[in-house]
Specification:
Blueprint (H helix, E strand, L loop, with lengths): L8 E5 L6 E6 L12 H8 L10 E4 L2 E4 L2 H18 L4 E5 L5 H15 L4 E3 L6 H11 L16 E5 L3 H4 L1 H12 L4 E5 L12 E3 L6 H14 L5 H7 E2 L1 H7 L3 H8 L3 H10 L4 E5 L1 H4 L4 H14 L8 E4 L6 H7 L14 H11 L14 H10 L4 E5 L3 H4 L3 H10 L1 E6 L11 E4 L8 E4 L4 E5 L12 H12 L11 H11 L12 H7 L2 E2 L14 E2 L2 E2 L8 E2 L18 E6 L21 E4 L1 H6 L8 E5 L4 E8 L7 E5 L5 H4 L16 E6 L5 H8 L5
Parallel strand pairs: 5-6, 5-13, 7-8, 7-11, 8-9, 10-21, 11-12, 13-14, 14-15, 22-26, 23-25
Antiparallel strand pairs: 1-2, 3-4, 3-15, 16-17, 17-18, 19-20, 22-27, 23-26, 24-25, 24-27
Helix pairs in contact: 2-19, 3-14, 3-19, 3-20, 4-13, 7-10, 7-11, 7-13, 16-18
């Protein structure tokens, strides 16, 4: 399993020595039925990047090899000193790359041992807006449809996502369904992507205007009388208030820069059974939650909720869903409300820690935690399987904040963040790790080790347990830790919740390979959410799904005379996350910026031999330039997998989800020799 599709792979260890020798699709796996993608196989058998094989500790200006006892001793000493001053003096940043067991263990240490509110995971940087929208609309997290619904839909609307690149196995199912008789694929994306190339209709809104476009489509549905009134009356609330909040379709379409006939085409296609997928192009916005709510509203208003239809957010990381269910990040395990007294008492009892140690708040979010580090309010930070220096907006600011803290980096590969570390703890990766993960349709699958990690690297859960036991002796048995015993503790905590996995055991997974929650007993498995034998039941106070009323506002950083272009970012098919596993050692440090030929012509004086400098209000970055008709004039596209891209991006966050606005900011181009620092030096006033 390499991404959140959750494909089942068969792995074989090397005949001699370490490493994974072979990976193939598991034909009997209920998720993917043998499907694979080249990237998933390649990154498991032959990952690029530099593996970490021994603990490192900073001596002066360099990181030097050390032993585990020394590294853990230094980490524990600094943590104890910081916690003694205040639990809020420690930050922990986790990841959707951990197993369920490791994520649960990390939450247990962060919340129950440290007692810190400053704990989050990089899933907040990609899925928080979708999660918030689900809670607001349905009273619970996770998309209603499953993969079983994909072939049953007639219309597939892909909004702000490129699954042909990011989720190729899932995309095959989607594309096959769209190509069938009566099938249709509509793509909404400012940029022409591999997915958009297959579309029957490609709608290109201006970057940052997705909410305006979604409301334009919704207004057209209402104005044309295409509302499913029977469904709305029986199963929803707030429809009249939503209608009152709508602009007229023509005005909203103009705001998004989309012709009205394109809006009408999307609205008309929703008359057939439709799955509406969305990704980071929607979520990573200051209006991410509002836009996700608007897409859910489209499904509710047109009756596209039920088997073969519905809203389906596309998750990136392999265990983003598991992190949300298991890690005690935004909720306690099983999506138990964080501040509810009974839940807190249950956690303190199971973990055998004082109730008063558990933080009162789930925390301010990933970006605000970094702000706390920058202000000096947090002295120690521990990152686990995440690379914030590359993955967060305004990366230069993030790097300085981490440089100024005592930073512990736990990872399998050398990353941009490691350069700021004071202690490095080398971790195992796929094929070297035991545990379970959850995919985006809620299936729990086992992951197994077929080889030992290289050198003295250890599994994440064993590292977490070693740190936790040094602060609170006995909080874990081991290390080494038995993942099954941790999973049993976790699943019992979810019993009776909206994300109940209590009926999933290791024995059941060995037999069934993957099981979808909710699974409250050994014989049941979850299907379409909120729907059972023709009856609807939502986790809201009224039991009905809720419409929303948000309206589009201006983008957080509009273009102007000084910064006349818009920067947006996306994925490459040959790269993964921030690129630490897929980056060739000889790969150019300069990312390649795609621009429309007209943009290149308009900015010709800022180019030199195919290179330019992109400047935002935060930084300037040298790039290579590639012409692309698929990028609209006035827009610059950069890949997310190069750390330089996020030196430019904007850290303003969605006020409801705390997810940053990574997909839109204002930039300018300058000749390569004229970086910001050089121009400032050249224009500085010399003393007389």
């Amino acid at each position: 399993m390499r991404c959140a599709v959750g494909c089942g792979y068969l792995q074989a260890g090397a005949a001699s020595g370490q490493g994974v020798a072979d990976v193939s699709g598991h034909a009997e796996h209920p998720t993917s039925h043998g499907g694979t993608c080249g990237r998933g196989v390649r990154e498991t058998v032959d990952p690029r990047g530099e593996r970490l094989t021994t603990p490192l500790i900073r001596r002066g200006d360099s990181l030097r090899p050390t032993d585990w006892d020394t590294a853990l001793g230094v980490v524990a000493t600094r943590l104890i000193e910081a916690i003694r001053e205040s639990p809020s003096n420690v930050a922990v940043l986790g990841s959707g790359q951990q197993t369920n067991e490791a994520a649960y263990a990390l939450g247990k240490v962060a919340r129950g041992v440290f007692g810190t509110p400053h704990y989050d995971a990089n899933t907040t940087l990609c899925m928080a807006s979708a999660v918030t929208a689900y809670y607001q609309a349905f009273g619970s997290d996770a998309p209603p449809p499953t993969y079983d619904d994909i072939p049953e839909a007639d219309t597939h609307v892909v909004w702000g996502a490129n699954p042909a690149v990011a989720h190729p196995v899932l995309y095959r199912w989607l594309a096959d369904s769209a190509r069938a008789d009566g099938g249709r694929l509509i793509v909404v994306d400012p940029v022409s992507t591999k997915t958009a190339a297959d579309a029957d209709v490609h709608v290109q809104p201006d970057p940052g205007t997705d909410l305006a476009l979604a409301r334009a489509v919704l207004a057209h549905v209402v104005e044309s009388g295409a509302v499913d009134e029977a469904f709305v009356d029986a199963h929803t609330e707030g429809f009249e208030r939503m209608v009152e909040s709508l602009p007229d379709a023509e005005t909203a379409a103009a705001t998004a820069g989309v012709p009205l006939d394109r809006v009408a085409a999307v609205a008309a296609a929703l008359d057939a059974p439709t799955i509406l997928y969305w990704g980071m192009g929607v979520n990573q916005s200051v209006q991410g939650t509002a836009t996700a709510r608007a897409l859910i509203d489209l499904c509710l208003a047109t009756g596209n909720l039920g088997p073969g239809s519905g809203p389906f957010s596309l998750t990136g990381q392999a265990n983003s869903m598991g992190n949300r269910v298991c890690a005690s990040k935004g909720t306690w395990p099983g999506h138990r409300a964080f501040t509810e007294g009974a839940n807190r008492e249950r956690m303190a009892k199971v973990w055998d820690v004082p109730l008063t140690r558990l933080p009162d708040s789930s925390g301010p979010g990933f970006v605000s935690i970094v702000d706390g580090l920058a202000r000096g309010d947090i002295d120690v930070c521990w990152t686990v399987a995440t690379n914030p220096v590359a993955g967060m907006p305004d990366a230069g600011y993030v790097k300085k904040a981490l440089d100024d803290a005592f930073l512990v980096v736990q990872d399998a590969f050398r990353s941009d963040t490691l350069e700021c570390a004071d202690v490095v703890l080398p971790a195992a990766t796929w094929g070297e790790t035991e545990g379970t993960v959850m995919n985006m349709e809620r299936r729990v699958s086992p992951v197994t080790a077929v080889t030992d990690p290289p050198g003295s690297a250890r599994q994440d859960i064993d590292i977490v347990a070693a740190v936790g036991n040094r602060i609170h002796p006995g909080v874990f048995e081991g290390p080494p830790v038995d993942p099954e015993s941790v999973f049993d503790e976790l699943r019992e905590l979810t019993a009776g919740t909206t994300a109940d996995i209590s009926g999933i055991t290791y024995d059941r997974l060995e037999r069934d390979l993957a099981v979808r929650w909710p699974a409250p007993d050994a014989d049941t498995e979850g299907g379409y959410r909120y729907y059972d034998d023709g009856a609807w039941s939502f986790y809201t106070d009224s039991g009905r799904a809720r419409f929303s009323t948000a309206v589009h506002s201006a983008v957080p950083e509009p273009v102007d005379e000084e910064y006349p272009l818009t920067l947006t970012t996306g994925r490459r098919s040959d790269a993964y996350n921030t690129g630490v596993r897929t980056r060739d050692s000889g790969e150019s440090e300069k990312p390649t910026a795609r621009m429309h030929p007209q943009t290149i012509a308009d900015c010709l004086l800022s180019l030199d031999r195919g290179e330019t400098v992109i400047e935002s209000r935060r930084a300037s970055v040298a790039v290579e330039v590639a012409p692309s008709d698929g990028v609209p004039p006035g827009v610059v596209w950069l890949p997310i997998h190069n750390a330089a891209a996020n030196e430019l991006t904007l850290s303003t966050v969605d006020p409801e989800s705390a997810e940053p606005n990574l997909k839109q900011c204002a930039v300018a181009l300058h000749p390569p020799e004229r970086t910001r620092a050089e121009r400032e030096r050249n224009t500085a006033v010399l003393p007389t």
